[in-house]
Amino acid sequence: MNVDIILSAREIFPDRVANKTVVVIDVLRATSVMVTALANGAKSVIPVMHPEEAFNIKKELGEENVVLGGERDAVPIEGFDYGNSPFSYVPEVICDKTLVMTTTNGTRAILNSKGASKVIIGAFVNDVAIVKALEGEEEVVLVGSGSYDEFTMEDALCAGKLAMDLKEAYDARLTDVSVAMSLLYHTAKGDLHKIAAQGEHYSRLAGLGYDSDLDYCFRSSVFEIVPVFYGGSIVLENMNG
């Protein structure tokens, strides 16, 4: 197994993901929300680039079948049902519904990865399940969505943890950037929040009062599920056969 890391949505070029298994990570908070929604019974998650697309899908599928969620600059989008907090997507809200999402960074990273042989949705909340699911893969690329096309500390830490765990589990060969992010995680693992809080995006969310989200999104292995982007929708792996 070879493991590479890409550190922002802007750096996802076709030749870096073609014929490879990609894990898209947006710890704060898109992929954490997607994993949570599916674990709480969502039928699927549809990532889109623009709010207008989300409104159109809701009209097509029916108001009663769709929940709109997302953000721009960490703020909920006008006209959407919910923002980008995992606590919004409890079972009574999301069970048997389709979540249509657009976010500043995470949904773009997913859509930019369409050329991969497989796209998995990952975060700290399902990290252990992701490592198990990658057994036997030859080429893995961990994609940190970043923020405004720049590196973010939280995505780098999660990618570093996954790379380190893949090295330990399968003796994976790590690229230089994967080694560097693994070392970052190893240095920070005693207090991830202390390191991540030095990052701009974490600080912005803290300033907006999302302390509970920040605590939740750094919890390891909350769920044992592996969402996969398949045919335009994100579903649980065992649903696409």
From TrEMBL:
Keyword terms, alphabetized: Hydrolase, Magnesium
InterPro entries with a match to the protein in the record: ComB-like (IPR005238), ComB-like_sf (IPR036702)
Annotated GO MF terms: 2-phosphosulfolactate phosphatase activity; magnesium ion binding; sulfopyruvate decarboxylase activity
Enzyme class of the recorded protein, top EC level: hydrolase
Cofactor: Mg(2+)
Domain of life: Bacteria
Catalytic activity: (2R)-O-phospho-3-sulfolactate + H2O = (2R)-3-sulfolactate + phosphate
Gene3D superfamilies, per the entry: ComB-like
Enzyme Commission number(s): 3.1.3.71
Family as reported in the entry's similarity comment: Belongs to the ComB family.
Designated name of the protein: Probable 2-phosphosulfolactate phosphatase
UniProt source species: Plebeiibacterium marinum
